[in-house]
Amino acid sequence: MTGPLQVVLGTISVLFLIVAVVLAYRAVRAMVRIIRTGQPDSTRFGPFGPRMKTLLVESLGHTRMLKWSAIGAAHWFVFVGFYGLFLTLVEAFGEVWNPAFHLPLIGEWSLWNLFADVIGTGTILGILYLIYRRQKDHPRRQGRASRFAGSNEGRGYFVEAVVLVVGVCILLIRALKISSDLTEAPAWSHPVSGLLATVLPDSPDLLSVVAFVKIVVSLVWLVVLARTLNMGVAWHRFSAFPNIYFKRQDDGGVALGPLQPMTSNGKPIDFEDPGEDDVFGRGKIEDFTWKGMLDFTTCTECGRCQSQCPAWNTGKPLSPKMVVMDLRDHLYAKAPYLLGAKTASETAPDFDVLKPSDEQVWASGYARIEGTNDAQAHRPLVGTLEEGGVIDPDVLWSCTNCGACVEQCPVDIEHVDHIEDMRRYQVLIESNFPSEAGVMLRNLENRGNPWGVSPSTREDWIKEMDFEVRMADGPLPYEVEYLFWVGCAGAIDDRAKKVTKAVAELLHTAGVEFAVLGSGETCSGDPARRMGNEFVFQMMAQENVETLNGVFEGRVPGTRKIVTTCPHCFNSLGREYPQVGGEYEVVHHTQLLSQLVEEGRLTPVTPVDRKVTYHDPCFLGRHNKVYTPPREILDSVQGLSTQEMHRCKDRGFCCGAGGARMWMEEKIGKRINVERTEEALGLDPDVISTACPFCITMLSDALTSKKQNGEAAEHVEVLDVSQILLRSMAPVGTPGTEHGTEVGTSDDDVAGTGSAATGHGQA
């Protein structure tokens, strides 16, 4: 059935294939060479089994994509269609020459025909839904609220059009084979194309033309891809697999929790004796590791990270998506200089001529300088418009380290790690950071706490307890089960001190033997590390490890237990201190209290008639996956009515204090804590509950402002879950139990049962 038409189309197809393959090969080789210019990172290569399992689960199971169910399901069909129906492209090359061509061995196999029919149909329906969602969520309709704001829309349209055309061609070819009587497959194996065949002519030539269209469209896509190395919306189809395999966590977890140690040339920096050529943080694009460059290459521009980012959602210039896009585009624009193909001039150009033209420009550093040129070679990684920076300082310092971007990214990009590495360079090398944060750093170095108060004040709360609190003096006696790490906020901040006293009272009631360090405790170093000052963190961490190792001297692993109320301390002590030789079993107070309630050692007996909504602290929830224990505590309290906010658990919204933002002024856009408090107040609660001292501060401040403006009822309060539990253990009839109260104003009334609002809710 080969005629002149088939010969012409077939010849063109083969020639086009040769050109496309050559261009694709050169593109892949160039991309690999560029990525290999990154710093080494030997932590990404094992173990093979768990990493391969993660790759298969996340790709075939689409577990990250299905966090958004409808979009994830649509994308799954497109994904399976692209790889599973690749053989239909191979078959099309034969069908161009001979319309009756079938793949050897499997061409007439019924199950293959059914698979191609179903997945081909699913691909068409899936891409149509994704096209619909792109238009429904388009920036022209939603503006800044669109997750596609800042994405390259034209590239997205191109990829969607290719998928749609190829999907339609697959079904048309199959239907034309049926209408032209060129297949013997049973009718049940092609339900959709069989139905379509009823309206198509008997035309083998038309079949060859459609096959040719399928080939041309597919190869045009490949050529465009090969000529555009920063086209992540297309390249992620290939780079996502290694990016997922080489993710930071061996067990498949997201790159949250502990920050990685600072490395230079692939090795951790020894801060006591750093090498002369050690690079501190990332000051140039080539300072990133090869995995960072693979991250940038893999970004799909889907905007899930942007849609969840608390900074972007409150009017700040930080978009995790655009940070990665800017780094990617700058990397590939600077590539000729990195590879030695071009040599930069000795002097940097004058960047003062740059002027922002629209929101995209001020939010997106790369858009300031486009193309490959001498300016790209001289650009600072972080800098203002006048400095020609790739990432604006306001972008860098808006990050709260909440981890929502990393949690939602379907291809496992490690946004927080990259932002922190750039902060490290700015702090340690450039000494360029928000001035108010400098006060916090000085206080940490001089007084061991962010507030700069005397270390002796750490013991003040102990004097207010009506039972003896054991002080750790040397190695702990064997009967002491836990060291209670109080934390800076828990010992100094008045609101957090009430939580400290509530937890201490609950542990005492449950018969848990614990001790505290008192003035011997110092900051865990989390604010310094998240700020970017790794040197101060290392200094404080090593000091604390020395103290803790002395307290736990003689204890075997499994008996070196620490309980803390601060999720930031919880994360540092448990997951970052092993980097400096500190191995401890660290639990959050909600985990321990939930266990004590389950064991019957704490029994909530008094109803607390209150409507509660719980706010997930980022460093307890997303960073450490502790979602259930706080809710179990609330569920154990009789009379409580709980309701979840729309943004909760792994999609929870930050309070605004993480990433050392607690110690910086929030000068741009809406305050994050106000946004979160408004969401909570939308449920008309009596109590906004949480489990973090920083969250309590941020939510309380916003709530106070709302009350002053008449936008919140006076009885609404912010309480730690431990305070609610303690209130439920007060004797029946205690004021404030049946109808609840505000937080008590006296220091010894940590549960708030004696406040003036005891009568709330009574007739």
Description:
The chain is mainly alpha-helical and about 775 residues long. The protein has three domains: about 5-245; about 280-345 and about 360-370 and about 375-430, Fumarate Reductase Iron-sulfur Protein, Chain B, domain 2, CATH 1.10.1060; about 435-730, no CATH class. It has a five-stranded parallel β-sheet with strand order 3-5-4-6-7, with helices on both faces. A four-stranded parallel β-sheet has the order 9-8-10-11, sandwiched between helices. Mean pLDDT is about 90; it is low at about 740-750 and about 755-763. It holds the Pfam family Fer4_9.
List the helices and strands and how they pair.
Elements: H1 4-35, H2 48-60, H3 69-84, H4 86-97, H5 110-136, H6 139-142, H7 153-179, H8 191-197, H9 204-227, H10 232-245, E1 263-264, E2 267-268, H11 290-298, H12 304-308, H13 310-313, H14 320-338, H15 359-363, H16 374-378, H17 393-396, H18 404-408, H19 415-428, H20 435-447, E3 470-471, E4 482-485, H21 488-492, H22 494-509, E5 514-516, H23 526-531, H24 534-551, E6 561-564, H25 567-576, E7 585-588, H26 589-598, E8 611-614, H27 628-636, E9 641-642, H28 672-681, E10 687-690, H29 693-708, E11 717-720, H30 721-728
Parallel strand pairs: 3-5, 4-5, 4-6, 6-7, 8-9, 8-10, 10-11
Antiparallel strand pairs: 1-2
